[in-house]
Amino acid sequence: EAGVAQSPRYKIIEKRQSVAFWCNPISGHATLYWYQQILGQGPKLLIQFQNNGVVDDSQLPKDRFSAERLKGVDSTLKIQPAKLEDSAVYLCASSLDSGTGSTGYTFGSGTRLTVV
Amino acid sequence: AQSVSQHNHHVILSEAASLELGCNYSYGGTVNLFWYVQYPGQHLQLLLKYFSGDPLVKGIKGFEAEFIKSKFSFNLRKPSVQWSDTAEYFCAVNTGGFKTIFGAGTRLFVKA
Fold first, then answer.
1. CA of A46 vs chain B CAs: smallest distance (Å)
2. Dihedrals phi, psi of B60, to nearest 5 degrees
3. What pLDDT sits at residue B100?
């Protein structure tokens, strides 16, 4: 089966600019996750969707980050304006289950963001 | 708040050595436990998972993990590592709700 697709793979922007990342999960996977992975740390959940509804966005910095999942398939994550501390790899994952992770997550390759 | 601790940030082993990576979590209720692996240049992949039943779980590529509830631990083991096991390993815990928390990861380097 096709994996989780993410684009772009790399992005370099200046602080205060905006940036958007795109994710296409595995077909049929109802649950989609965006994680932020700062160098030397484990992935941290930013937002979780089930179909097109938000299940958990408690750790999403809502003053600058936004995400949507229209039609319950593709998702975009936006940062506006970016700060230096947003430099990280942004991972998208999807799972067949309703969010317990029982079926395991399938991760995309991630987008490496560098804010200068 | 729930947390996951991986004791070793970096581990260096020679081929054929035995491996044990520690993972402890802080949560008193029912948990689902995972180990993920990220090989150089590749994305995170599921190595094994525990939900219930036999606390000794076998995964891919000869890896296994043991859930010890009394110690809140889920250590990863492999009797004999290979150069191709060089990767970063992440322990993850789902507390039965909707959030899966990852540890900071352990980088394993296996010398040929």
1. 10
2. -80, 160
3. 87
